[in-house]
Amino acid sequence: MTSAATPRKTAFRLLRWRAAPLITILTALVLIALRVKGLLLAVAFALIVGSCVIREDHWLKPALSSRIFIKVGAVSYGMYLLHGLVYNGVEILGNRLGFDRHGLICFFLALVLTFGLATVSYRYFESFFLGLKKRFEVSRAMAGSKRKWAVP
Predict the structure, then answer these.
(1) pTM
(2) Which residue of 12, 25, 30, 150 lies most exposed, with the fewest beta carbons within 10 A?
(3) Is the Cβ–Cβ distance between 17 and 41 less than 8 Å?
């Protein structure tokens, strides 16, 4: 059991370095350049996230705390939901105009449209429901009390 715990402790010790997110991103870029696919690339991306979470004062914090990353984080769920629809539309338009469906023009057009639609969705749709959740939150004082609350 101690032999299994040693690599885990070593991994956590390495991920605590301030440079760990940068190193893991560079490692992932090298794997992408080498056209490595599958589990190894997935592990590299998981290590990027893990290294950013384990130590929050890492070298990428200024970049990840920038306005654009915060905005993308706020609308990311809408981007996730809408990107397929947007890409299908861009692909149809690209076929009619003679663009490569995997080319940079289609990619950037899909990216901009997805971000724009997700921003509109967040502003006029998601934020309404996020505001509703405040009506159903229970305060800490109520949560700690033994009083039974009936659902109206």
Answers:
(1) 0.62
(2) 150
(3) no
